[in-house]
Structures are given as C-alpha cells and as structure tokens.
Tryptophan--tRNA ligase, mitochondrial (Mycena sanguinolenta), 344 residues
Amino acid sequence: VKPRTIFSGIQPTGIPHLGNYLGALSNWVKIQNENPQDRVIFSVVGWHALTLPQNPKELVASRRDMLAVLLAIGIDPKRSILFHQDANAMHTELAWILSCITPTGKLRRMTSWKARLAESRNANDESEVDESMLNAGLLTYPVLQAADILLYRATHVPVGEDQRQHLELSRDIADTFNRTFKGSSRMFPLPTALITPSKRILSLKDPSAKMSKSAADPASRILLTDSAAQIAAKVRAAVTDSITTGVTYDPSARPGTSNLLTILAACVDEDVHDVAARCAGMNHGELKAEVASAVEALVTGPRAEFERIRGDVGYLDQVAQEGAAAAYELSAQTMVQKRPLRSM
Ligand code: ADP
Ligand code: NA
C-alpha cells in the first residue's frame, strides 16, 4: 500500500462533545494507528475560529484545551504531527493565492454559506437576503480549508458527510492550480475523502437535531470532561418515547431510543442491530443505565488524561512547539515550490 499523507483539523471551540468524539475524533486515533507508513497530520485550526466573534482570552484557553483533548484521547505526537494551524502563517498565504483562482460563484454554492444566508434573511421579507452583516471569512473559509490540506500535499482527508462538499472544492481548487501553473511547480495531489462511517449522534433533548455545542440546553450534550454523575443525569433525562414494551432500533419512529442505542453501540464498538437485539427486553430505565455506564467507561480514561495534561503547561507548550516546527518544515517545502507566485 502506498503511504498516505492524511490531514484533518478541528476548531478550538471548547471541550468536544460525544458527537464530536464518536463522529470524528475517535476515528483520528484509529487512522493514526492504522499504518505506520502514513504521514498523519492533525491540526487545531484557530484561523477558522475567527469567522465567529471570539473573546481573545477564551480563544487562547480553547486552543490549549483542544490540544490537551487530542493528546488525552490518544493522538501521539511521536506518530502524528499535531500543531496549531494559527501558528503557521503559510496557511493564510496559500489561502490568499488559492482565493485568487477560485470563482466567488463556487463559494456561494457551498451549503455552509447558504445556511448563513438563510439565517440572515430579512425577518420582514423572507425573499430579501442581507449579506451586509456576514464577514467575508464566512464565504471564503472553504478556501482556507483547501489551503490547510494542500499545504501538506495531503492525499487523504478524514471528513464527515457534512464536509464532503468542501473537500470537493479543495480537489477542484487543486486541479485548477495544477492546470493554471503547469510546469512552474510540482502539482498538488488531489485529496481523497476518507468518509467516516457515519455515526451521527443526536441531541439528548431533541432527537430531531444532532448533538451540538451550540444548542441552548447543556443537558442536550455530553462533554468529554463530564463526570460520571453528570453523564448519568444527562442520560437519565434524555428524551425517549412512550413505548414501554421493550427496546427497538427504529430511527424514524423512535429517534430518542434509537439514538441511545447508537451511542451504546458506538461506545462498545459493536453493530447497532446486535446491540438492539441484546437490549430488546429492557425498559427505558434499564437501557439508560446501560448507556450511561458505557459512556462513562469510554470517557473515564481520556477525562483523567485531560486533567493531567492540561495541568502540565510545559508539556503542552513543548508539543505545540515541536508540532509547529514539523508543520513549518513540511509547508515550507510546498511554498518554496510556489515561489514564482510570491513577490519575494
Ligand atoms: P458542532 O456541530 O457541535 O458545532 P463541529 O461542527 O465543530 O461541531 O464538528 C466537529 C466535528 O465533529 C466534525 O467532523 C463533525 O462532523 C463532527 N460532529 C459534530 N457533531 C456531531 C454529531 N452530533 N454526531 C457526529 N459527529 C458530529
Ligand atoms: Na457546527
């Protein structure tokens, strides 16, 4: 098998919830440990966080917390390059170059942008879209994502279903660059999506929505740092349904109950149908007790590691520094090849 260069990033937006972990981050650890020949690069993408209003002090803390979380769940800086994207200005440099070969029309077709527009629709006139309050970064951040990937000449990018369109854009931009500057530089590889087998975790309070950090009710999500008691309380209060005779996996008719089964199956790494069969004779209370203890068993190690690592500021700084140096070296190789495009 040809060694891969794998890149993925996560924004420094507070402690990850169970959806982030089961849907994305746990897969990073699997990928890291899959094939020692692969070059694996994980980034805390602070530049991206600036598309939303940020309190500088909180952002500094969130960056450090996210680095500590990644170490705590098993990202190993000896096996992976782990670094802060915002410590490397070449991301923004390449993003600028790429933005100048990217038609705005393509960016306006991104569903992420359309969702922003929909949120900003004039309350009095639904047909009137008001862009004036949206910053340009919200339109162009998919180009920054392309730069994140292409800067390391990544061949594979683990993404959720929701990021597939952005990865397509990255391929598109790489292809445009390769055609436009044929001969003047080594070509970018076209990055391939490593689509994570989708484990979409739903809100514990509203199983019609996904578990999200932005939902108003903190009881709708379990954080990786929640205590056993907090986990048990949140699972106990999870919305299920009024069917009292047994447990079945039926996402459309029983979304809350099915979500609990999804969580349980993901925690014990089994097929959800097998888990449903095993739990068929339980009532909701028994299922919830089972789910709470499986979640607790999953997070107890990372939670303790997080507390330990977060207290070790010297270690965190050292990891950040070494990661930055490794990332800088790789990305400088790419940017030197693009030198004809630079003014100096
Ligand atoms: P949030 O929706 O809480 O803002 P992000 O958008 O920052 O989370 O997502 C970070 C990563 O976690 C992405 O790869 C995303 O696909 C994944 N993710 C987020 N929420 C869930 C969820 N409820 N279930 C599964 N994966 C999720
Ligand atoms: Na989000």
Notes: The pocket of adenosine-5'-diphosphate (ligand 1) is lined by residues 10-11, 13, 19-20, 23-24, 160, 162, 199-201, 210-214 (CB under 6 Å). Residues 218-307 form a domain with the Tyrosyl-Transfer RNA Synthetase fold (CATH 1.10.240.10). The CA atoms of residues 279 and 331 lie 50 Å apart. The radius of gyration is 22 Å.
